[in-house]
Specification:
5-stranded mixed sheet, 2 domains, alpha/beta, Beta-carbonic Anhydrase, Chain A, 9 helices, lyase
């Protein structure tokens, strides 16, 4: 097998990373192997420029992560629901953060009509968000400003969709401490912005979404 320079580099980087961790703590990996109890579930974008742990300075074992294109919370996505269910009911996380980012390619694609491939079917969910808020978005004449606003609105909608899930609402009904948050990450400066959409119970949801258990 021909080993490219990049492939060899990432294998070498792993060895150096292990050595550095063991130099700090000889039991580092032994302790990690004993189990996990992260306080946070991160639902983020698959974009390679948005690494969840690094952004918030978290160590391995502190963040349970689910990523997809444009950080979507789709009610029929069994992958996302399975991660959410395990995080909430098994790991007992106390916080779930939906983190979008400015310059998101998925959100940008949803603003246009160019066919990309099978991803078109996923992006349709993002287009639905635009349709719900088209009056506010179409009123913004500057394209970059409209793009940024769409990124923010999309995150807010995903947090609300998260609050509507039976998994989250059941946890609240059982008195479980669980808070949902919406963030946007800035690729240009590295800072996150709390969008102020925070849920810790179902009282902020319309009555039609409040489930009775």
């Amino acid at each position: 097998m021909i080993m490219t320079d990049f492939y060899k580099k990432i294998l070498d980087n792993n060895k150096k990373w292990v050595e550095n961790k063991l130099a700090i703590s000889p039991n580092y990996f032994k302790n990690l192997a004993d189990g996990q109890s992260p306080p946070l579930l991160w639902i983020g974008c698959s974009d390679s420029r948005v690494p969840a742990n690094e952004i918030i300075g978290a160590e391995p074992g502190e963040v349970f992560v689910h990523r997809n294109i444009a950080n979507m919370v789709v009610h029929s996505d069994m992958n996302m629901l399975s991660v959410l269910d395990y995080a909430v009911n098994a790991l007992k996380v106390k916080h779930v953060i939906v983190c979008g980012h400015y310059g998101c390619g998925g959100v940008k694609a949803a603003m246009g009509n160019t066919s990309i491939g099978i991803i078109d079917n996923w992006i349709r969910h993002i287009k639905d968000v635009y349709r719900f808020h088209h009056e506010e978005l179409d009123a913004i004449t500057d394209e970059k400003e409209r793009f940024n606003k769409f990124v923010e609105i999309n995150v807010k909608e995903q947090v609300m969709d998260l609050a509507k899930t039976s998994i989250v609402q059941n946890a609240w009904k059982n008195g479980q401490e669980l808070s949902l948050h919406g963030w946007v990450y800035g690729l240009n400066d590295g800072y996150v912005t709390d969008l102020g959409v925070n849920f810790s119970c179902d009282k902020d949801l319309d009555d039609v979404y409040q489930l009775k258990f």
